[in-house]
Amino acid sequence: KQRLGYKRERQLAELPKKIEALQKEMAAINESLADATLYSRDPKAFAAKSGRLAAAQSELDAAETEWLELEMLREELGGRSRSALLAGLDESKQFPVEAVRVFGER
């Protein structure tokens, strides 16, 4: 039975924390950007927050993709099929259902 290896196992363990932190950061930024007067009061802050939101979204997308790939690899090494993995992810809510829809079967 093969294993992921220390580095990949550690990444797999750390990625959910990173994903959660990015989601919280994005929620806070979106809340700030929801202020209709922010742009007129402070255009530089608006631009900075908008830029950070885009960067955080890119980081989130990359982290979710990496997590899904590592999880699929771990499950394949453990003997479960991708179909079983994707079904399990959907039911367990360990990963956003949207990711299952986006990645689907390969």
Plain-language structure description:
By secondary structure, this protein is mainly alpha-helical. It is 80% helix and 0% strand. It has helices at residues 6-33, 38-41, 43-77, 82-92, 97-103. The longest helix has 35 residues, at 43-77. The radius of gyration is 18 Å and the shape is rod-shaped. It starts with 5 loop residues before the first helix and ends with a helix.
Give a short overview.
The protein has helices at residues 6-33, 38-41, 43-77, 82-92, 97-103. The protein has 106 residues and is mainly α.
Give the CA-based shape. rod-shaped
Q: Give the strand content.
A: under 5%
Percent helix, as a range, is over 70%
How many β-strand runs? Answer: 0
What's the mean pLDDT score?
82
Radius of gyration: 18 Å
Main pleated-sheet profile: none
State the assembly state of the protein chains: single chain
Low-confidence stretches: 97-106
SSE arrangement, N to C: HHHHH
Distance between the termini: 23 Å
The count of helical stretches stands at 5
What class do helices, strands and sheet pairing give? mainly alpha
